[in-house]
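Lab meeting, action items carried over

1. Structure of the two-component assembly. Owner: GW. Status: complete.
Input record:
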Amino acid sequence: MARVPHVAVAALFVAIACSSSDAGRSRSASVGATASLPEADTSSPVRDSAGRFDAGQWVMSAGDYANTRFSSLNEITTENIRGLKVAWTFSTGVLRGQEAAPIVVGSTMYLVTPFPNILHALDLANPGATRWSFKPGPLNAAQGVACCDVVNRGAAYADGRVFFNTLDNHTIAVDAGNGKEIWRTKLGDIHRGETMTMAPLVVKGKVLVGNSGGEFGVRGWMTALDAATGRIVWRAYSTGPDAEVLLGDRFKPFYPADRERDLGVQSWPGDAWKVGGGNVWGFVSYDPDLDLIYYGTANPGPWNPEVRPGDNKWTSSVFARDPDDGQGLWAYQWSPHDLYDHDGINENVLLDLEWKGAPRKLLLHAERNGYVYVLDRATGEVLSAEPFHHITAYRGVDLRTGRVQVVPEKEPKSGVVVRMICPAAPGAKDWQPMSWSPRTRLLYIPHQNLCMDFEAAEANYIAGTPYVGANVKYYAGPGGHRGELSAWDPLAAREVWTIKERFPVWSGTLATGGDVVFYGTMDGYFKAVHARTGAELWRFKTGSGIIGQPITYRGPDGKQYVAILAGVGGWSGAIVAAGLDPRDSTAGTGFANAMRDLPQYTTKGGTLYVFGLP
Amino acid sequence: MSSAFPSRPGALVLALALVWGLGCERETRRFREVPPTATPGSALRLSSINPGPAVPDSTIRSTYAENAYAVSEGKRLFTQFNCVGCHAQGGGAIGPPLMDDEWIYGAQLENIFATIVQGRPNGMPAFGTRLATSQVWQLAAYVRSMSGLLRKDVAPGRADAMQAKAQEQATTEQRPEESTTPPQAERP
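Predicted assembly:
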């Protein structure tokens, strides 16, 4: 009931967006329209009366705060999808890994390219036409401290503004109408190896952003910026004293071992927490009812675990925080004393489901370590953790203590090559986001099937250079295929169907009201499968391998469209995007070895494809 | 034992010949390094054209590129200064591969010296004064060995780390490609 006013706001929003498009590409007209946006109550994006975001738009990377990547649009169905055709395309002009989700507000699509992070605004009423392009001009040198290609995972919209991050650590707010910069705030320093690649989330007038740099000994943080001014409201580090991790009286982690003070210091040797990683480069979720944000933290630095005895809190963890002041409510560490670069940044999907007979607020997470976790998102209790991947490095999660059980024989040691560690460093699943369909009650998990050899080595900290200390190479796990798309029933904790792919499925997935699931492959196919059976319904060969995030929206003509960026790259595709030489099996931090045949299947690209029914 | 010696004179002669022959191929061992000239100076060029009459190429004959000890020091520094984190063991990662025939900023020893000292615009850090001049030359010599551009007897023959590729000594010479496109050409 309280949300009824949002309907009016939504209507107003759409009207304004449409009127600005009617004004054509006249910048002054757009400025006028944007300036007339109501001051109050527009900080939360457009929603319908049920509290869901308006299905016709896609205002943030994950589609909604809960990170479901589900759209109720159902014009495209399992029956008519065979007629799906390219409606229009757009070249981003950049030939590096295209990991971003385009966002759609009114009749405009916004997309941010990999470095040099150009923000394009495309007119959906006049397909392919560029309303404006904003060039932020990031420092060239930033490319030298980006661990895994110079990617960007997308922009976010709120309140007439588009927010995005640049590789050289600026968060920028741009006027959605005319493409003029409103503010920019510098948040980090490339001279310490810091970069920013994640897609912001806007919650209650705050832009939530985090840093990358886990391979450079960068101390991780999440920062909230005032959406109006760009001023820093709070910053929560992932390591260090409680005062800097923002853990106070309200911090009540579920497991007793996590309740001691200053664990972000005590669980490290000496000052190692200052260069200990725990970066925040994944997607952020928000639960408006509990008023909590959720996000994961990345691997500890360096990879060599011998030099950092202890749990290394709060790396490879998940935080629940108050968006207003950043205070932590609870935290849980997926992988205490991570051994294998198993970041905990994978997205957290927030669902209200019946769990063992009682309704419960759940958080679902497919972790790099190979387990699908079901947590109570109010308390941080682990309710279930079941493997979705072949695992040799762990023996399961002890639900009494919440600790994942490591296999001692697979622990890395200096000067010893430990073989057949599964999952490999990129994990059973990396950043590529899964989707959830409330119609099928299944998660659609894009993932890889890789194992690795790992030799711990000397790690020297020199600011601005890699701090890794490991020689690694990856290869296909059992079965020989390197990727999969799996439909997973989180309540039964079992796989319902799976599709094997030649290469890692490094794209996100999208589930729709038409019971169609979309995803892309690194050999360049954009595919649609039946949400219930996994049967392939349709495919289209794009110009380059796909590692992006598919989205869907209702165009100005009222029809449903599906959009995806094609352009191979990222960590998995660096062999093509950066021209790595796989004669060295440690190239690309070990990934090139597993991808040595990728150059036979795809070349570089950077093109947006939009599909619709004729 | 003693009876075996005179009964196999042929084998002894062969063994001596082998030792003599192989020894002849090794570089002269120096126990004290000659201090190098500080900078590559006028030998440094990134373009194959020049105004006016053709100027002959002048390359520095660095003693470091002809000395197995110096090159093995370069290999050690390559890990110690985290070059390995960006270039892997030659296959590249954040930075480009060094074991292939593509040289964005020149394949000559002095080009590599300058690249390490000055840095390069698309992310190569300027190591400048962080390294002693002699160390830069050692690194530059080792970098050339990664694509088989040094004499086989000078290039490192084994690695202490996980075997990830053919050793430098066993790497086939990759003739430097003249037409490498700098990566910034991709920028729109």
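2. GW to write a short summary for the group page. Key points so far: Helices of chain A lie at 4-22, 27-35, 242-245, 263-266, 570-577, 591-594. The interface with chain B takes residues 93-96, 116, 118, 140-147, 215, 415, 417, 453, 455, 457-458, 460, 462, 464-468, 471, 473, 574, 578-589, 592 of chain A (CB under 8 Å).
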